[in-house]
């Protein structure tokens, strides 16, 4: 009874607040002081938790209070109450520094009408002009996702001159300064304008812009900028437009508005750009031959890495924009360190970076990278101080894109217990429907971990394994179709921990998985599987949750039964370059079995040996 009263009270209270002030929630991204071009004049808008104040030379000052709000994803609908009437504002935050809005004229209600969102926003049309608001206290954002590279350009401005101004020295320059990923240089770019003979309205000068962030609407890629040397507010903010399908043209606004850019072609100002080719860097050294091939970078799984004798080419496809490519050219090698020239986007200045490699083993190249510097000098670039001096660190990994399985460092037949956020579960490989188990009594249900194929290159994990014997005491293994199969593709020891990389085509999360493993006893092994292709420095054999980058820890005890031909094997990975193929092969010698007499057997064996000898002599 009491709870009912409380519920009723809450509902009533909630209803009351819809009409009161508390029902309005102006999000933090919209709060601040903004500049925009509205109703034909420069406008300043101040938004705080409750109110919306607009000020312009002709429109004067208008203060409204927020009375209702709703949100759909990142879009917000807000109702503001003026002295007499209500306005509906639909706000679309684009970046930290820019939002766009639609708004209705002020709506006056009949006496009995309620200011609901539906009622006030009724007059809103989807084809209305969007108004762009620029944050007056903007925080510059890295230009990298907006514009990166060096271009020569020719440009048109429909409002200032006719024709295209094409001067060989005109260029757009947006390059990241090496080693300063988060610093101010990367938040700016330059456009160098050159005067064209006989075209009034063209001029000589460099304009420096700070980036305010970028966003996509369909295929249109917008980015907003602010001219760093301009103090007049209406001349300061500009909007640019690129199109994903056509990177030869860039559109720009000539006012503090983005709505004038519908397509690149119809933009008030249009730049025709040609990328400036970067200079060619001659390789000065060669990588070890066994680096050549296709790799994946575990630090960035979505990147493709191709290595040939002299170049490492990393291509990354960020899902929204085009691809990003970084090319490293081998310049000079001493001991394990190789100085490389790094070429990023066309035209930007190259820089130098040092890689410290461990010789390849299995399907793994381990390396670490120094910080990038401008100087082309081995002792500077590859000085050990260039390597980030963290207390705990691990090598980064390149893993073969088409790995060749190797013998697993842990092999044999184990029974295990597990603990983890994502433990091994019974499932049917390949999606075949589970047929009901025939009525066979299991003597014991265990979890089974086997590396028993002849080469011991594949781990088979069965979360629920029926351990049973038939009436003759032979094991019944009819349910032994494993739930998981993973190929071992590399292992090594680092920081006194043993690491293993496995490969499973069917793993939806990560085909490559890193493990930490350790022998705990003569016949007991502990292992911990990581979330993905690399192991966190903190991951240990008992790690089982995300805080240490792991998903499951297993504790395994060997249990080879009499008839399982599966010898135990353990390698701590101290010397991963050592060849450890499994030479213990079990050949069923059928001839002995088919005969009863021992003498017959030896005769048969003799005959087989003779036949083999003859074959050898003949071929
Ligand atoms: C929310 O936004 C999505 C896409 O922007 C739109 O399809 C959907 O209709 C909106 N929902 C409401 C309730 O307005
Ligand atoms: C832009 O040009 C100015 C003057 O030439 C220069 O000082 C500045 O460093 C340049 N900025 C960028 C980001 O290239
Ligand atoms: C390696 O790749 C680069 C870039 O694709 C290419 O210019 C170079 O000729 C290649 N080198 C060899 C030895 O194939
Ligand atoms: C790759 O070559 C290096 C020498 O250049 C050698 O030390 C290493 O064992 C080789 N690795 C493999 C897997 O062949
Ligand atoms: C093993 O599991 C099966 C079902 O999966 C069950 O029928 C059987 O009783 C279990 N046996 C033991 C010994 O727990
Ligand atoms: C994660 O595991 C560690 C031990 O491996 C434990 O101390 C910690 O409490 C666990 N964290 C969570 C959130 O379960
Ligand atoms: C499985 O392992 C446990 C210890 O973890 C052990 O007590 C049990 O006997 C093992 N089962 C078999 C069939 O070896």
Write a concise synopsis of the structure shown.
Residues 1-20 form the signal peptide. With 619 residues, the chain is mainly beta. Helix content is 9%, strand content 43%.
Please characterize this protein's 3D structure.
Helix content is 9%, strand content 43%. The strands form four sheets. An eight-stranded antiparallel beta barrel has the order 1-2-3-4-5-6-7-8. An eight-stranded antiparallel barrel has the order 9-10-11-12-13-14-15-16. An eight-stranded antiparallel barrel has the order 17-18-19-20-21-22-23-24. It has six helices and 34 strands. With 619 residues, the chain is mainly beta. It has helices spanning 2-19, 117-120, 233-236, 378-381, 590-594, 598-618; strands spanning 32-38, 41-47, 51-56, 60-72, 75-81, 86-95, 98-103, 131-135, 149-157, 165-174, 188-193, 205-217, 220-227, 237-243, 246-252, 269-275, 293-297, 300-307, 311-316, 324-334, 337-343, 351-361, 364-369, 396-400, 410-420, 444-451, 458-469, 475-476, 484-494, 497-503, 512-521, 524-530, 550-558, 569-570. Residues 5-21 and 583-603 have low confidence and may be disordered. Bound molecules: 2-acetamido-2-deoxy-beta-D-glucopyranose (7 copies). One 2-acetamido-2-deoxy-beta-D-glucopyranose (NAG) binds at residues 308-311, 313. Residues 72-73 line the site of one 2-acetamido-2-deoxy-beta-D-glucopyranose.
List the helices and strands and how they pair.
Layout: H1 2-19, E1 32-38, E2 41-47, E3 51-56, E4 60-72, E5 75-81, E6 86-95, E7 98-103, H2 117-120, E8 131-135, E9 149-157, E10 165-174, E11 188-193, E12 205-217, E13 220-227, H3 233-236, E14 237-243, E15 246-252, E16 269-275, E17 293-297, E18 300-307, E19 311-316, E20 324-334, E21 337-343, E22 351-361, E23 364-369, H4 378-381, E24 396-400, E25 410-420, E26 444-451, E27 458-469, E28 475-476, E29 484-494, E30 497-503, E31 512-521, E32 524-530, E33 550-558, E34 569-570, H5 590-594, H6 598-618
Antiparallel strand pairs: 1-2, 1-8, 2-3, 3-4, 4-5, 5-6, 6-7, 7-8, 9-10, 9-16, 10-11, 11-12, 12-13, 13-14, 14-15, 15-16, 17-18, 17-24, 18-19, 19-20, 20-21, 21-22, 22-23, 23-24, 25-26, 25-33, 25-34, 26-27, 27-28, 27-29, 29-30, 30-31, 31-32, 32-33
The protein binds 2-acetamido-2-deoxy-beta-D-glucopyranose (NAG) (7 copies).
InterPro entries: DUF7042 (IPR055470), DUF7043 (IPR055471), DUF7044 (IPR055472)
Signal peptide: 1-20
Pfam family, one: DUF7044
